[in-house]
Amino acid sequence: MGGGAERRHSRQPERQDDGKGGPRGDDGGKKVRGRKRHILVDTGGLLLAAHVHPADVADRDGAKPLLAPLGRRFPRRTKRWADAAYQGPRAARITETLGWEVEITRGPRTWVRCPADQAPPPRPVGFQVPPRRWVVERTFAWLGRHRRLSKDYEVLPETEEAWISLALCRLLAARLAR
Where are the domains of the chain? Predict the structure, then answer.
């Protein structure tokens, strides 16, 4: 009848399927393989816009396709918080084109220059949450609770963007039902 080591169950896959397809990349700095997600949320953490792209695209370049189609879509919202990847000319361009005030959120400084005759201020102890950054991180945590978004399963980035919208619509509907 044959050895048991060479026989497989009929439902066992023939080999591992690592070829998921679709555009993917590697970001050596963040140690991310696959894709990155950029989202724009309101102060409550609900989705305004989302963009998914290969991981080899820098964060500062990934914001352009996220913000470009918005134009003047949210006229009442004038202030945006962003992390340090969007500072400099990117923040200035957002202010010029969209009319939004961009504030870069930073954590507490771990070192400062002091004159020789002054003692340095005490260093912050433990983990310090950057201001307003937690809103976006909380939204990413909500997305991670959905099975299709917990890992990079989708072939097309557009499909993943649709699942992001669907997951947060589900969250909003659950909140309204309470």
Answer: 25-72+131-177
